[in-house]
């Protein structure tokens, strides 16, 4: 196991060699990368930075290496954050993949779901959006009406979602739907993942 001071020196050296100069400045509108194929950064260096960090697993430093993450311990992660701040490095990847659905899958996902989605999130291959709010159910998610009917090998989803930030550029959505209409309104709600290219979306 590498001691923390050695890890710090190695991290500092790697960042100095691999972080482009333009990625050591304040974020500029349109230059960030949230993943996916539908939205592009105006700065080519952003892709260089993303690729290099993803190859190290440092777009998701504490995620297990088996899913593309860096596998860092908490103390190593804090050192990495410190060194990134010292050079004023921008985040290589932002968005709901890294911040929301990824951690959720790590905690609750099946092995198959983790293997399918997490490496793609780490690489920035996919952009995600959140399907929670509805015309009659904003912050009161217990009132959501979108239904998902089990059709055997797929779910048939009917309903509407609004205020879905990033939907225009998203490849996938994580969506709250009602799967049991007979249950009390705070129950019978399921969490579905599906492609934004699905018919009817």
From TrEMBL:
Name of the molecule in the record: Acyl-CoA dehydrogenase/oxidase N-terminal domain-containing protein
Keywords: Oxidoreductase
Entry keyword Cell division: no
Any single GO CC term annotated in Swiss-Prot or TrEMBL for this entry: plasma membrane
InterPro entries: Acyl-CoA_Oxase/DH_mid-dom, Acyl-CoA_Oxase/DH_mid-dom_sf, AcylCoA_DH/ox_N, AcylCoA_DH/ox_N_sf, AcylCoA_DH/oxidase_NM_dom_sf, Mycobact_Acyl-CoA_DH
Domain Acyl-CoA dehydrogenase/oxidase N-terminal: 42-125
Pfam families per UniProt: Acyl-CoA_dh_M, Acyl-CoA_dh_N
UniProt KW Cytoplasm keyword: no
Any GO molecular function: flavin adenine dinucleotide binding
Record lineage: unclassified sequences, metagenomes, ecological metagenomes
């Amino acid at each position: 196991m590498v001691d923390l001071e050695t890890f710090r020196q190695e991290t500092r050296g790697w960042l100095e060699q691999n972080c482009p100069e333009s990625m050591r400045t304040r974020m500029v509108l349109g230059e960030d990368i949230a993943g996916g194929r539908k939205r592009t950064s105006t700065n080519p260096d952003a892709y260089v930075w993303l690729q290099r960090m993803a190859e190290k697993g440092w777009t998701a430093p504490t995620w297990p290496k088996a899913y593309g993450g860096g596998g860092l311990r908490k103390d190593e992660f804090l050192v990495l954050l410190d060194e990134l701040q010292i050079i004023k490095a921008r985040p290589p990847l932002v968005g709901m993949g890294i911040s929301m659905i990824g951690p959720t899958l790590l905690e609750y996902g099946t092995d198959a779901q983790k293997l399918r989605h997490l490496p793609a999130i780490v690489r920035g291959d996919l952009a995600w959006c959140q399907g929670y709010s509805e015309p009659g159910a904003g912050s009161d998610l217990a009132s959501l009406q979108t239904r998902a009917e089990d059709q055997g090998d797929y779910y048939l989803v009917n309903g509407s979602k609004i205020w879905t930030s990033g939907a225009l550029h998203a490849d996938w959505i994580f969506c709250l739907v009602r799967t049991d209409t007979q249950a009390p309104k705070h129950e019978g709600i399921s969490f579905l993942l599906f492609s934004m290219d699905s018919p009817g979306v």
